[in-house]
UniProtKB/TrEMBL annotation:
PANTHER family membership: IRON COMPOUNDS ABC TRANSPORTER, ATP-BINDING PROTEIN (PTHR42734:SF19), METAL TRANSPORT SYSTEM ATP-BINDING PROTEIN TM_0124-RELATED (PTHR42734)
Protein name from the UniProt record: ABC transporter
Gene Ontology molecular function: ATP binding; ATP hydrolysis activity
Keywords of the record: ATP-binding, Nucleotide-binding, Transport
SMART domains (alphabetical): AAA (SM00382)
CDD domains: ABC_Iron-Siderophores_B12_Hemin
Keyword hit for Membrane: no
Domain ABC transporter span(s) in chain numbering: 3-238
Family annotation (Pfam families): ABC_tran
Organism: Rubneribacter badeniensis
KW Nucleotide-binding (keyword) present: yes
InterPro entries given in the database record: AAA+_ATPase, ABC_transporter-like_ATP-bd, ABC_transporter-like_CS, Metal_Ion_Import_ABC, P-loop_NTPase
């Protein structure tokens, strides 16, 4: 089991954000986390990454109790990719990959030949090796996300946590990043990522976890979880979930827009 969360609770001061959250992510699985703004998705990730302390319950990562791991051991198990990432220093892309927390180099060490080879391999694997010598501050948002995925690969972590990894990306980069992530899960990594696009799960996720009011309100196969009833209820919009390509994929359509369009067309006739 890659991540096993049992009875997780967390509060900011007196404000309870997570209550009795329990779920397990098997190895090699890509899990999308859905939920309205402010429901606690980032807070959940920050607990799993030990960036938030003081949580109750238990979190096990690759069979090891999170509380028993050193920072370096944790980094070997889990890599984190934030929503967007900017660097104030003009490191080149290869250096950013080499700075992975557990790759044996760290911020101030000097990389050995095997570290450099591993970093190039990781950049190659996500299709951005051609950017290796470019300054990280001068590549696009989508390219940065791919470089951070390469860094997670070079870090040798078996699990990646991604907080809205495509929120700042255009359509093409969104597809490229999600495809790269999908491929990593096929190769055995476990990935948990939050998103505000419920229908992304149909193409890219093995499971969908839905948080609402600090609790897990659904978890399972995207086709069972991302339903018209659930999406309408948690986001307070009327949607239809439509099936395409012999149900190989489904899309969410806001029905109120369709009703308005129909009313406009009828008024114009
Ligand atoms: N450092 C903090 N101190 C106090 N409250 C916080 C802190 N960080 C987040 N919160 C509150 O905790 C709740 C959960 O926030 P969190 O960022 O986890 O939500 P989220 O589901 O990731 O939201 P979004 O989808 O908007 O990114 C929110 O009500 C937020 O205002």
């Amino acid at each position: 089991m890659s991540i096993d969360v049992k009875g997780l609770g967390f509060s900011y001061g007196r404000r309870d954000v997570l209550r009795d959250v329990s779920f397990s992510i098997p190895d090699g699985m890509l899990v999308n986390v859905l939920g309205p703004n402010g429901v606690g998705k980032s807070t959940l990730f920050r607990c799993i990454l030990c960036l938030n302390t003081g949580w109750t319950g238990s979190i096990t990562v690759n069979g090891r109790d999170l509380r028993s791991l050193s920072v370096r051991e944790r980094a070997r198990e889990i890599a984190y990719i934030p929503q967007s990432h900017s660097s104030v220093y003009d490191y080149n892309v290869l250096d950013v990959v080499l700075m992975s927390a557990s790759g044996g180099v760290g911020m101030f060490g000097s990389p050995k030949k095997r570290h450099v080879e591993r970093a190039w391999e990781a950049l190659e694997r996500v299709g951005v090796a051609h950017l290796g010598h470019r300054p990280y501050t001068r590549i696009s948002g989508g390219e940065k996300q791919l470089v951070l995925i390469a860094r997670a690969i070079a870090q040798d972590a078996r699990t990646i946590v991604m907080d809205e990894p495509t929120s700042a990306l255009d359509y093409g980069n969104t597809v490229r990043v999600l495809s790269a992530v999908r491929q990593l899960a096929r190769e055995g990594m476990s990935i948990v990522q939050s998103t505000h696009q419920p229908d992304q799960a149909f193409l890219y996720a093995d499971r969908t976890l839905v948080l609402n009011e600090g609790r897990v309100c659904a978890y399972g196969d995207p086709k069972d979880v991302v339903t018209k009833e659930l999406v309408s209820a948690i986001y307070h919009v009327d949607v239809e979930v439509c099936s395409l390509y012999g149900d190989k994929v489904r899309v969410c359509v806001p029905v109120s827009e369709l009703d308005r369009k129909q009313a406009r067309e009828e008024a114009e006739r």
